[in-house]
Write a structure and sequence with these properties.
Among the domains are: about 1-130, no CATH class; about 730-845. Helices cover about 70% and strands about 0% of the residues. It has 43 helices and no strands. InterPro entries: ARM-like (IPR011989), ARM-type_fold (IPR016024), Importin_beta (IPR040122).
Length: about 850
């Protein structure tokens, strides 16, 4: 049997209903071999199958199978085809796509895929071949067919090409948008849906050019106009597709729209109306509408903060709109209403980790909380925080209290504590009582709220509520469901980070036992998280942990030996190694069980080259802690460990992570930066030649485009960079050069960094480093003057972060905001600056 006949015979056999027959299995195997064989036989197979796809003697199912396998074979065969074969393939593929019999549209998905694969194979303007533009225009011509199935096939194929071809279709985007918009008025519902999806695919393309802004804005207006009619007709299927495409339009970069971004307001208004309509389907309609509002908060923040000038009528808060309030001020009240809707939570004790559940949930309440979380991070406190507090005050005694606490937790997380700290006395007192409630749902919601407060309202929580918080967290750790545990561990770790010593001692036995029990949990994620938190507790408790150290080390060592080779087992092993190193750093390496120190050093050193970010993160943490404990004995590992840390800091993380969002890369970089400071602090002299290179890495990690926690950690590490020189005798030119570079970096961060936490770390580090440097060498006058000038900038409130803070304070006063941002961090900043450059009050006032 010839190859052509064999291919068609196989296609017929595969379409038969008897799937267990020997004929079917033999045909499947033969066709599979042809689709993945050498280019010569695969080329013949493609042509044979496409000819079968247009044959009138085959059934729809058989033709569909021909198309599916032809697409697979085409990927392998295209490169070896001659120009004539390519032309023939193009002709057959388009003929199959626009088959006259396709009124039932049965084979359309397969044929759309065939043409899309063809488009990905061709080269633009290929000699003697089939050009991509030629294919696009041929497909686009189908939009003018008298057959609705052809118009739908055209739209669906062009949408698929936009998605798969990326920038190769960029030149066609504007033409395609015009074609899609024209099809929005088609009499056939399937065609309209395909056109809507097509607009969404163009908008979702990563290579959308700024020149496309006006066309996309026009699409937004057209879609909203059509969606209003669709809403009246209660066509929820089409409405869902329209909302998905509006979501894609909202996701387009703000600079693409430019002055045309007012079209987003029409989407905003419609999405809000749909999201608040409880009569609509939650999953298909209300959830996509709520997601649009979240994307607006993230992508078009500046637009939402503008004053409303009557361009749209939201009709939700006449009091605010009557005063010409911001658009965001009209969004918050209805979002709070949606967030208070009841949710089907199922079994609250289910095996569910809980972290990120709002973002993963499709319930309107969860999505409303997600939107409020996003808005809280970019809007003044009086627009989001105050309404959330008022809501909590109003509902705390009723059945809606759990939902109100969930809203408040989301807003606290979004603001990172801004505007919440001044309410701590009342909030903590209320939460202490709520935690005694018999209502499990209320306790769960309050647990998350308390954890968000403990995590984000630092250092105030650690300074004023330490014993209360450790007692509450211990109780929650032992009695709360798994869905809350991620928040509890985050709160406990943050409290430990900001607290030392005896405040945790009364709860230490219970905490250690609870965490050890969780490390035995069948969920590897829970076990790994508990192991990491155990290290934070040990670090916080210091000498108070000594009675628990020996038993805990043996326990963790056994866990390491018992961990399997799965992904979860590997993470648990890595976290255990880092925690054991933390404990040894506290109680001393002499407390290590026999062989443990060698095991930790060798395993961590090997893990620095792992392909797993968690393994590398834990290796940096482990070696950093051991370096401080070993001091000069760490020298054989120092250079390799520091080199690996520098390599980790050189990884590029997307600018989207400039707030408190963490990824595996960022967490590894934070561990690497902290480890570098610990390597410096070990004092090993072999690091001296390596210090300029590590300083460059820390400077790169502290740039404003990196996330704030990483930047703070990098600057903190710089504080120890002179330690390897402390034992040096006499003046050294290399040390002076390092001094000049280090103080230059710190001065730059003090003057120009927009984040107060980074500036505080820099001014504190500068003060400490000046004392160290002066004990080793006589610093050049220009270095001393530079540090004094930088300190004076802080004292005179002329740094960038101080200027921006005062601008926010002034804006809050103009908006009659009762709550100004807490400024304790700025007072601390000035205190440290005055240590470097003391000035009289009259000197400061005169400037």
């Amino acid at each position: 049997m010839s190859l052509d006949v064999d291919a068609l015979a196989c296609a017929r056999a595969l379409a038969t209903p008897n799937v267990y027959s020997v004929e079917y299995e033999r045909a499947s195997a033969a066709l599979e071999r042809m689709a993945t064989s050498t280019s010569t036989s695969a080329r013949a197979c493609v042509l044979a199958l496409l000819e079968g796809a247009v044959m009138t003697t085959l059934t729809s199912a058989e033709r569909q199978m021909c198309g599916v396998v032809a697409a697979r074979a085409m990927k392998r065969a295209w490169e070896g085809m001659d120009a004539e074969s390519k032309t023939r393939v193009r002709t057959l593929a388009l003929r199959a796509l626009f088959d006259e019999r396709e009124r039932d549209r049965g084979t359309m998905p397969a044929m759309v895929h065939v043409v899309n694969v063809l488009a990905t194979c061709v080269e633009v303007d290929a000699d003697g071949g089939v050009g991509l533009v030629e294919i696009a225009r041929a497909v686009e011509a189908g939009a003018g067919s008298a057959l609705a199935s052809h118009r739908e096939a055209s739209a669906r194929t062009l949408a698929a090409m936009c998605e798969s071809l990326g920038d190769r279709m960029a030149s066609e985007h504007e033409r395609l948008l015009v074609s899609f918009v024209r099809l929005l008025a088609d009499a056939d519902a399937a065609v309209r849906v395909a056109a809507v999806v097509g607009i969404g695919k163009v908008a979702s393309s990563w290579c959308v050019a700024p020149a496309l802004g006006p066309a996309l804005a026009e699409c937004a207006v057209t879609l909203v106009r059509g969606a209003r009619g669709t809403l009246e007709a209660r066509d929820e299927n089409l409405l869902g597709h329209l909302l998905e495409t509006m979501s894609a339009l909202v996701s387009v970069r703000e600079e693409v729209y430019g002055s045309h971004n007012v079209a987003m307001l029409e989407i905003c208004e419609f999405a809000l109306r749909v999201a608040t309509d409880a009569s609509l389907d939650t999953g298909a309609v209300r959830s996509p509408a709520s997601l649009i509002l979240t994307k607006l908060a993230k992508k078009h923040t500046e637009l939402l903060t503008e004053t409303m000038d009557g361009q749209i009528d939201l009709q939700y808060d006449p009091h605010v709109l009557g005063k010409g309030g911001s658009i965001a001020s009209a969004l918050v009240p209805p979002l709070l209403t949606i967030a208070m809707e009841s949710e089907v939570s199922g079994d609250i004790e289910e095996d569910f980790e809980g972290e990120g559940r709002d973002e993963q949930s499709s319930s309107p309440a969860a999505l409303a909380r997600s939107t409020l979380r996003s808005l809280a991070g970019v809007l003044p406190n009086h627009l989001v925080v105050d309404p959330a507090l008022n809501l909590l005050e109003r509902l705390r005694a009723g059945t809606s209290a759990p939902a109100a606490w969930k809203v408040f937790a989301a807003v606290t997380e979004g603001t990172r504590g801004d505007g919440v700290t001044s309410h701590l006395p009342a909030l903590v007192s209320e939460l202490k009582e709520v935690m005694k409630s018999c209502d499990v749902n209320l306790r769960m919601a309050a647990t998350e709220a308390l954890c968000m407060i403990a995590t984000h309202c630092q250092p105030e929580m650690a300074d004023e509520y330490t014993e209360t918080m450790f007692e509450l967290i211990t109780n929650m750790l032992m009695n709360s469901s798994r869905s809350c545990q991620w928040a509890i561990h985050g709160a406990l770790s943050k409290m430990c980070e900001n607290t030392l010593g005896e405040s945790i001692a009364p709860q230490l036995p219970a905490l250690v036992e609870a965490l050890k029990a969780q490390t035995m949990d069948q969920s590897w994620r829970t076990a790994a998280r508990a192991t990491s938190t155990l290290g934070a507790v040990a670090q916080c408790s210091l000498d108070f942990f000594t009675p628990h150290a020996g038993e805990t080390l043996l326990f963790l060592l056994e866990r390491v030996r018992a961990a399997d080779q799965s992904t979860g087992g590997m993470e648990l092993r890595a976290r255990s190694m880092a925690t054991m190193a933390t404990i040894l750093g506290i109680v001393g390496i002499e407390s290590a069980p026999p062989g443990l120190l060698e095991l930790l050093l060798q395993t961590a050193a090997a893990a620095l080259n792992s392909s797993d970010t968690i393994a590398r993160e834990c290796a940096h943490e482990c070696l950093g802690k051991l370096s401080v404990a070993l001091e000069e004995k760490f020298e054989p590992f120092a250079v390799d460990a520091a080199s690996a840390a520098v390599t980790a800091l050189a990884q590029v993380e997307a600018p989207a992570h400039t707030v408190a969002v963490m990824t595996g890369v960022v967490e590894e970089q934070m561990a690497a930066a902290e480890a570098l400071g610990q390597y410096f602090n070990s004092g090993v002299a072999c690091l001296r030649p390596f210090l300029p290179k590590t300083l460059e890495a820390l400077a790169y990690a502290s740039e404003p485009v990196r996330c704030t926690p990483l930047r703070v950690t990098a600057i903190r590490a710089v504080e120890f960079i002179f330690t390897p020189w402390m034992s040096a005798e006499g003046q050294d030119a290399n040390f002076l050069a390092l001094c000049a570079a280090t103080f230059k970096l710190l001065c730059d961060r003090i003057r120009t960094d927009p984040d107060a936490a980074v500036v505080l770390a820099a001014i504190q580090g500068m003060s400490e480093l000046l004392d160290k440097a002066k004990s080793v060498a006589t610093l050049p006058e220009d270095v001393l003057q530079g540090t004094k000038d930088a300190a004076d900038v802080i004292i005179r409130w002329q740094s960038l972060c101080q200027i921006e803070f005062e601008a926010r304070e002034e804006a809050a006063e103009n908006d009659n905001d009762d709550e100004s941002e807490d400024n304790d961090i700025f007072d601390t900043m000035v205190f440290w600056a005055e240590r470097i450059s003391p000035q009289s009050d009259s000197d400061a006032d005169s400037d």
